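Duplicate of #3305? Posting structure anyway:
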């Protein structure tokens, strides 16, 4: 597996395995802000990358993510290296959160966090990515901007979702929680709100 980035106390009793979305790597500003913010609550945050991302870095070229089956196996491997599902909350940004939700029940993790879940491709609400979410058993937190083009409140309100899933809305946020200037909110405000929700969820999921 590629190199990891680890934030938070080494002796932390709570760990969060956190992966990037389709476009930006594990050291992007969004990933860094969230990882460091959650780590400040006493959580050990472990960032890793899917196989295609190091290749992009090495070649300097683009390249699509591997098929979901490959990404799922990569996540399973990372879970094993991090100590096993029983010790972890797993999650990710966008595609990373989707893949986390697809492996969660099989590897028996403590919880799942999805930051900006891609309920459908942008502008294509008819192509949903929700079938497995109907039967998901693992406690799951989805943090979603109210202006997310991959799933708005209007879209999501019509989906059949498992009762294990909790959705929290970030006011006026886009897919990365950035608001419009006229909203009176800032990107920093919204990211802090998301971090607080994630930290609270991890604490509740790993108690006991």
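Output from current build:
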């Amino acid at each position: 597996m590629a190199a990891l980035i680890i934030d938070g106390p080494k002796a932390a009793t709570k760990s969060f395995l956190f992966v990037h979305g389709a476009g930006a790597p594990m050291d992007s500003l969004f990933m860094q802000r969230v990882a460091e913010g959650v780590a400040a609550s006493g959580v050990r945050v472990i960032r890793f990358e899917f196989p295609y991302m190091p290749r992009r870095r090495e070649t300097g070229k683009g390249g699509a993510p591997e098929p979901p089956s490959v990404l799922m196996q990569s996540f399973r491997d990372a879970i094993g290296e991090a100590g096993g599902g029983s010790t972890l909350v797993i999650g990710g940004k966008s595609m990373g959160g989707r893949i986390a939700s697809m492996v969660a029940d099989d590897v028996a993790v403590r919880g799942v966090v999805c930051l900006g879940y891609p309920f459908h491709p942008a502008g294509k609400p008819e192509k949903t990515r929700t079938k497995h979410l109907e039967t998901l058993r693992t406690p799951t937190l989805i943090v979603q901007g109210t202006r997310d083009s991959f799933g708005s409140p209007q879209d999501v309100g019509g989906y059949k979702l498992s009762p294990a899933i909790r959705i929290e809305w970030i006011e006026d946020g886009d897919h990365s929680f950035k608001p419009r200037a006229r909203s009176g909110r800032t990107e920093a405000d919204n990211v802090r709100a998301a971090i607080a929700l994630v930290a609270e969820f991890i604490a509740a999921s790993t108690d006991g």
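Confirmed duplicate; merging threads. The beta strands are 5-7, 15-19, 44-48, 88-93, 111-115, 140-145, 165-170. The chain has six helices and seven strands.
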